[in-house]
Amino acid sequence: MSKRLLPFLRPYAVRFLTLLGLLLAGNLLALAAPLLSGRAVDAIGVRAGGVDFPGVLRNCAGMLVCYALSSLLNYFTASRLIRLGQAVSHDLRKAAFDRVSELPVEYFDTHPAGDLISRVCYDVDTVNAAISTDLLQLGTSALTVAGSFLMLLLISPRLTLVFFVTVPLSTLLTRFQMKRIHPLFRRRSQALGALNGFTEERMNCRRSLRVYGVEDEDLSRFQVCNEAASRAYYEADRASAALGPSVNFINNLSLACISMFGALLYLRGGLTLGNLSSFVLYSRKFSGPIREAANLLSELQSSAAAAERVLDLLEEAPEPPDAPEAAEADRLRGDIRFESVTFGYDSARPVLRDFTVHIPAGSLVAVVGPTGAGKTTLVSLLLRFYEPQSGGISVDGVPIGAYRRDGLRRRLGLVLQDTWLFGGTIAENIAYGSPGAGREDVIAAAKAARIHRFISSLPEGYDTVLTDEGAGISKGQRQLLAIARCLLSDADIVILDEATSSVDTETEEAVGAAFQRLRQGRTCFVIAHRLSTIQGADRILVLDQGGAAEQGTHGELLAAGGIYAALYAAQTWKHG
Amino acid sequence: MKTVLSYLRPHARRVAVGISIKFTAAILELALPLLLAHIIDDCVPAGDLGAIRRAGLGMMVLAFGAAFCNITANRMAAWVSMEMTRDLRRDLYRRAQSLSCAQADRISLSSLVSRLTNDTYNVHQMFDKIQRGGIRAPMLVLGGLTLTALQAPLLGLVQLGACGLTFLAIALVTRRGIPHYTRAQEAVDTVVRILRENASGVRVIKAMACQGRERGRFEEASRAAQRAEETAGGIMAAANPLSDFLLNTGLVLVVAAGAVLVNAGWLASGQIVAFLSYFTLIQTATLGLAKLFVKLSKGVASARRIEEILLAPEDQPARPGVGRDGPELGMERVSFSYLGMEQDLEDASFTLNKGETLGILGPTGAGKTTLISLLLRLYDAGEGVVWVGGRDVAGLDRTALGSRFGVVFQNEALLNDSVYENISFLRSLPREDVEAAAGTAQIGDFIRSLPEGLDTRVDIRGANLSGGQRQRLLIARALAARPGVLILDSADSALDYRTAANLYAALRRDFPGVTLVVVSERVAALQEADRILVLEEGRIAAQGSHAQLLKTNQRYRKMAELQMGGGLT
Fold this sequence. Notes:
The complex is a heterodimer of chains A (about 575) and B (about 575). Helix content of chain A is about 65%, strand content about 10%. By secondary structure, chain A is an alpha/beta fold.
């Protein structure tokens, strides 16, 4: 098992060793019982009518007590070990998730959720199996092996030499096979992760698959992934299928050798017959656990591969930490500057080129422009989802890198283009980001966002639990919920990225009034297509081809007759 | 369990051969000690060196044979479990994709995903374990029982009783354990769901600096899974010690009963000793079985979850010949409710001729998407008739419906695949058609500007594209197969007005005969429609052309004015 896993096991070392000790005690008790049964048989004697019944009963009672105690001990240790394994699993999952929550946005753009799930659920589960059953078995086996080996040495050091050949042989064989098997198990975990990623993606577009009638083709693509995952599973399984039997083979081989050499030794007078038979008995005791362990090795292999995937996830680079002297963004005035910012998701193709703009505190700035002009990118950069390749962004004259990242984000009230709901009640979804908000606040926000009536019409109102990220809730309703969420937050800078694109005009008007109230004294940054939303802005910024093409008020821009004027004409098309 | 086990049937012969090989291996291994006894008991006292060597070599041959058989049997088992799991997963996937929307809503997507992944994995392990471990142990138990019963029928009875009780105990414990494993799987579903949410909502979560909260939520779910697994495992942990104790009590009873029998002169005490050694054999085997059962119960719980999907009743069957023919597209007094409580669409009636355009407008939650879902027969109307292509949709089977439509849904995700594949969408359309569709959808120039053009890879959920680019790719997908009916559900929400205007103009130019259904918040997109439906709270409040509605519908007029600024007045 990987060394990197040790920090997760260390806190439980004492418990683990204690349980190991208890298990040993339980086994010893079980071993004491045959002794008693021997005495009981002696008490029975060989003569009819001559049975020493009190002796038989005494020993039988003793046996019962031994068995009962050993069963109790075994139950106790087994259930404790399950808890221990689960505790380690929980720690691993938690550590994995903690890291997931620190990963930069880009990670999720390139890693399917299904693969992530497969690491945190299935891989952790495999590690758990190793801890709660396999490791323990290995531990007790080691003890039995050590004990028997001692006895073997005491009986006949010369005969023990056989093991000096066979044990290294089986070790070598095992190591050789493990080396071959390990990458197979790794590939198996990867293939399974890929299959999960595919499944996740395709389950999400069930409706389209059905409407376009391509379910058969989709199934055949699934089969490619399924085939690959099943193959990889089989390859690993097949390779490890030889592990147990081949170790067992060497054990049996050594038994044969012992029988032959032991017999020869006896004939030369180097060994008594009694010694030979107990040597054989102990050597079976010695190799039994080794055989068990060999069977476990393949399981441990799969656990090791799984553990690696979890640990790799833990080592993914998180968002860079805040500088130690980073400022807490307590209250922001909201003076935002972009200074010759150049940025592209793919650095060869910049989305923003040498972009400069100043948004004074307390102003309402609208950003318009054709799709793909970089409007959402502006927001992503301000939120520090990505770092610009050159140039800088400052808020209140302080570079945004000098604020604590979370602190800065908390001062920004946002409605992003990607509306997102989680599996909780509607009230929880609205209060997301405002943990202190009470039910009245939530309702007030929902009313202002014009979504209160819809919520009230649901059978369980605000306590309706959303499933599947709010499937069944229309995009417009999602946007209104996101707006309610934003209205509830106490932000200094409000950013609306096409916040009402799927909301009807009338509702939008009504919601606009709520934003007017929210806007008092705050900087407001609005990305929208609907020009009716934009007309009242203090300043309109027209983005085109990665730069600010035009700036000015509605009237000025119309008069200038540039891009904005053309966009406006398109909207009032036929009438404009 | 039956359905899942039926996947074993096609492999019955292979399994039988595997079992026989495993059986042979067990016999070979059991013969080893016999040869050993032969060396010690016969050859050594006789001092026959040649016999010793022969017996020793014989042992080596047996050892080799056993290893060979075991490896072969294990590999066969691995092959069979792989084939079974692959087929099971394929059928499960097919069934999951063919569930009706109502069924899928009920089960939830994350649970479907976890059944396809986690549960099939558990079942795979179960298949493997049954074949590998389920042969030797029962063989030893049965063999041991038979031998002892032959030797001393009375004591054999005691032993049979002990074994019976043990199996009863294992069965009871397993039965109690399985529901807890089901619960544990459900707890895992929650863990999966939160992970999914965090992957899809990463921007919102980070923007609201709620990572701490998410960590708390995850920790809670992970703890719940931990506790559920502990409970299930705690119950199953009783199986081993309990059967251990029961079997050992049987052993004590054998000794006690033996004492009585010996006293009465019915039994020699040496037989008790022989009996006890068999007993240990049976005991080890029974314990092996108990262990197997523990591992199986997790698999059984998963198998049941899989069967729940596989055996889900066929929803929305086509009822050919049902209903009368009607217009190209239309509804008559249609009502529908998702949850069976409030009506989400009520008494909707409209008709549309071939090649005409239908516009749908209305506030959020008025039932626009619901109306479209009914046209596509994603759900079945509670009351009334829905016509597509002149036929009652209830009488059309799904494929007949599918080839007719091009649809852009709200909230649709792109594939993590090439731009081409996102437009062609598994239909293997010619590249020219894809390019033409991209051109009409106003995304052709953008695609050409990409370094690898149509072969550029789209990130997960289209993260490397802007909202408008994603939307236009979906529109191109809807157009690419030149459908007879094109449905755009708020497909222009992320488009700027100029692009949207160009799009609608290109649609009219390139698809002159198409029957078009447009849901939009933008009056500009609807004004040329032959018929516009104004929806309000699930009802069609008004319908007519742009000019008619401007005159007759207050709400429509107001909306038009708001959007088009002074353009109207």
